[in-house]
Amino acid sequence: MSDDPNHGDRFVRLDDGDLHVVEHGKSDAHAALLLSNAAAPTAIWDPVVPFLHGAFRVIRVDQLGHRRQAVPSGGYAITAQAHRIAAALDRLSVSRVTVIGHSSGCMLATALAEQRPDAVVALALIDMGPSLDAKLPDSPLFHLLMAPAAGPLLWRLRTPELIRKAARAGMARRVDIPDAFIEHSERLTHRDLVGTMRAAKDYLRERSLPDRLAPLGVPLLVVFGADDRRWRSSSAVEYRVVPGARIELLAGVGHTPMMEDPETTGALLLDFAEATAPAS
């Protein structure tokens, strides 16, 4: 942790509400922004932050799930969420940034690169299919959860045990689910969950991630757990249309490499971020 009083856990004031931010590392170093999907807390990155904070200013944001945060003025659209993140970076005086996304956080990372091509110097995407064709079938329970009538009722009946089970659903290795998952899920509303899920699908329907990334000319690392149970890991090869893309498949790892194999994942992210960071 930095001794800088501006680092740590805080809220950044935006025009349409507050955004929860967690920072570690050197305040004067190149920034590395970590983005997860709305259903996961910033704690999902805890196992790999130690690999990064010695060399970078590590910034994590929660898009939703905190009592002081409001629904973005543009709704749940990926572009609206990315716009809020860009505004937060401005408030934090970050002009150049390496962006690392996980799952639907990869769509936020991509949208941010589309909106701020001058600011995003490199992208790392972790376990995100390039298009909806790469999605593995959702469970019947998930479909019920998304339903207008049954969904809100099921959401109110969730328990810590069910939350932990859902968090492990895409994993290939059994890992401890931190209490932060439970706390985040208990704060997240059913409206937030459904809104962000639908917005992510809409973004992919418009255009695949490789098609969006190919013209940007941004260095790209794609990390995929070979045994991902949410997205077909074989679909990672579709990112090769992006010039210079580097693709890494992790054997025996599922949808959450940061938690299932933090040593390998952290080393990959550090190597990529150091290789692509601008000179001081």
Calculate the terminal CA-CA distance, rounded to whole Å: 21 Å
Please count the beta strands (DSSP E, at least 2 residues each).
8
SSE string: EEEHEHEHEHHHHHHEEHH
Largest sheet, if any? Answer: 8 strands, mixed
The CATH topology, please?
A: Rossmann fold
The low-confidence runs, each spanning 5 or more residues with pLDDT under 50, are 1-6
Highest-level CATH class: Alpha Beta
CATH level-two architecture: 3-Layer(aba) Sandwich
- Average pLDDT confidence is 91
- Supply the CATH superfamily name: Alpha/Beta hydrolase fold, catalytic domain
Question: What is the tally of helical segments?
Answer: 11
Describe the structure.
This protein has 280 residues and is an alpha/beta fold. The protein has a single domain, classed as Rossmann fold (3-Layer(aba) Sandwich), CATH 3.40.50. It is built from 11 helices and 8 strands. It has an 8-stranded mixed β-sheet with strand order 1-2-4-3-5-6-7-8, with helices on both faces. The longest helix is centred in the C-terminal third of the chain and has 17 residues, at 190-206. Residues 1-6 have low confidence and may be disordered.
